[in-house]
Backbone:
């Protein structure tokens, strides 16, 4: 008798709907035709409300202006701003004009901005004047010498040879910048016919968006996504929650990230639902207020956000009974928090999504029909039209129930990292599988659990942090001989950054000095919360730092215990 053949850890998603072959611009035009008078966009902190017809008109006008200014299809336009209506207008207007939108994280500081603008060769940068403690205008001025800013937003700077236009958001005019309103006004000379003709030439398979993800080897990499990647991923995320024109979705997650832009904007617009932005960046009370005031039916967030909302002192004052569904994603989702979201926030159909920027992002999602137990304890099943396999260190598919690295293939996988075929080839193999670096287990029914990471990455409150990037930065400190950055368990943020440093002979240092060295140069969430000094690291025989031992050692010293996640 032959041996029983185990079921391989391979799943392929089917669904009742075919893939959409539409551009991002067409998706909005479709919504404006079908649901012209329904609310498309509510931005609470700007007191703004637009129907699909109004949003489409404003987007058309801005797309004409971008062309009138001289931008051409394929040019890169960067946006560096927290959430606001201009972000949404820019997203759709750029797409309609065939421009590639480059999302820049508002937490980025000087060195990261410089890298992203140069790496992708942006022709235009649209920026908020400031964000929290960060003065964006000063950062830009520190990179562009005075003589390079020619007035009315025009730039001529050898250090950024491609950059030609700076556009500012905000009410106060800033010397030598073009204001967003001025930009909007320059489209009169471009006829709608030209835009329509251009629209017919755009192809859903063209790249339309670059989203930066941190890298294992230092600087952020630009994941290049096509219309087809993100339109479909957004559409199927919305299908997973049964979105329709009646749904009103509260989006407190950032637009620069795929959670806001794809799971948020595109899932909503492909279904004629309403986007509700409570604030420019996450504020728990603003979220609770927006859900209650706008009668939202869905709410998004990384686990940290839901924890902050549930623990807010005024939580009970808000009527959240309109909520039905939503998404928790971006980091391991604690089972206890999922249960509270179902019971105390009325999100009985809440779903968990798993994915990564490079795959559009979502590849697993629990479905509103899945049993509650599966919905709170797994990341659900494979998304329609995608494939996943789980492999061992030799690349062989493991049997169901065994852990291994999760690989994704299908329509959602990015084109590659912008201008970097070598690093693209490190993650997408010749058979088109994207190697995620996440460790997962598939059960017999196809439900997936994310059990760890092969990649050296920390997730702090939904922000990915690659220790390598911080380590390389800290090596520049004259007192640092060697450094290892690890993620320490934290109940609120999931993980916190800890830099473990070996100092050079004969010098002393304190944690504040190390943190001060980082501030202003790297994003605040990458600045180590904990800094510890040691005389040696636990090493493997081959001399590599054993980070899991180091992390365990520090968590033990600090009296920290990890908790269960989905
Ligand atoms: P990003 O590219 O910023 O979307 O981050 C992707 C990474 O976030 C993945 O590779 C995972 O490590 C992690 N991640 C996303 N969603 C989940 C989830 N539901 N559970 C555990 N980890 C997740």
Residues:
């Amino acid at each position: 008798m032959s041996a029983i053949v185990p079921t391989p850890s391979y799943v392929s998603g089917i669904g009742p709907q075919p893939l959409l072959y539409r551009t991002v611009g067409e998706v909005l035009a479709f919504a404006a035709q079908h649901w012209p008078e329904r609310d498309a966009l509510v931005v609470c902190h700007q007191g703004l409300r637009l129907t699909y017809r109004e949003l489409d008109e404003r987007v058309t006008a801005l797309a004409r202006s971008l062309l009138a200014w001289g931008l051409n299809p394929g040019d890169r336009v960067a946006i560096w701003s927290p959430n606001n209506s201009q972000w949404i207008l820019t997203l759709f207007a750029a797409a309609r004009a065939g421009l590639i939108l480059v999302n820049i994280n508002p937490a980025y500081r000087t060195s990261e901005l410089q890298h992203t603008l140069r790496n992708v060769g942006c022709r235009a940068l649209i920026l908020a004047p400031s964000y929290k403690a960060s003065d964006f205008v000063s950062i830009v001025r520190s990179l562009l010498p005075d003589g390079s800013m020619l007035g009315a937003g025009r730039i001529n700077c050898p250090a950024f040879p491609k950059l030609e236009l700076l556009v500012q958001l905000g009410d106060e005019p800033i010397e030598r910048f073009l204001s967003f309103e001025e930009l909007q006004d320059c489209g009169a000379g471009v006829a709608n016919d030209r835009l329509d003709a251009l629209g017919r030439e755009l192809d859903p398979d063209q790249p339309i968006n670059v989203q930066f993800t941190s890298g294992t080897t230092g600087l952020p990499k630009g994941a290049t996504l096509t219309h087809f990647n993100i339109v479909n991923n957004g559409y199927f995320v919305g299908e997973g929650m049964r979105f329709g024109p009646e749904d009103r979705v509260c989006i407190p997650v950032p637009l620069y990230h795929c959670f806001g832009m794809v799971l948020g904007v595109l899932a909503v617009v492909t279904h004629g639902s309403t986007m509700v932005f409570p604030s420019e960046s996450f504020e728990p009370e603003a979220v609770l207020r927006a859900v209650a005031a706008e009668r939202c039916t869905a709410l998004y967030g990384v686990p940290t956000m839901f924890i902050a909302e549930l623990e807010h002192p005024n939580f009970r004052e808000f009527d959240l009974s309109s909520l039905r569904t939503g998404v928790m994603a971006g980091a391991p989702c604690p089972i206890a928090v999922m249960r509270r979201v179902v019971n105390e926030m009325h999100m009985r159909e809440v779903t968990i999504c798993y994915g990564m920027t490079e795959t559009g992002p979502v590849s697993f999602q629990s479905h509103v029909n899945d049993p509650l137990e599966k919905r709170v304890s797994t990341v659900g099943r494979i998304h329609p039209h995608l494939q996943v396999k789980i492999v061992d260190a030799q690349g062989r598919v493991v049997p169901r129930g065994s852990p291994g690295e999760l690989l994704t293939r299908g329509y959602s996988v990015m084109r590659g990292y912008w201008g970097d075929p070598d690093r693209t080839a490190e993650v997408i193999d010749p058979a088109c599988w994207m190697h995620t670096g996440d460790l997962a287990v598939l059960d017999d029914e196809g439900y997936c659990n994310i059990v760890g990471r092969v990649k050296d990455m920390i997730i702090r409150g939904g922000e990915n942090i690659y220790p390598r990037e911080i380590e390389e930065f800290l090596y520049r400190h004259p007192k640092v001989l060697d450094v290892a950055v690890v993620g320490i368990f934290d109940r609120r943020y999931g993980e916190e950054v800890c830099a473990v440093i070996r100092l050079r002979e004969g010098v002393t240092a304190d944690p504040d000095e190390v943190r001060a060295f980082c501030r202003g140069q790297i994003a605040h969430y990458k600045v180590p919360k904990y800094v510890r000094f040691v005389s040696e690291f636990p090493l493997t025989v081959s001399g590599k730092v054993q980070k899991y031992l180091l992390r365990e050692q520090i968590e033990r010293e600090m009296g920290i215990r990890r908790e269960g996640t989905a």
Summary: The longest helix spans residues 52-69. Residues 213, 258, 329-333, 352, 354, 356-357, 361, 379, 436, 438, 450, 453, 459, 464 surround adenosine monophosphate (CB under 6 Å). The first strand starts at residue 10 and ends at 12.
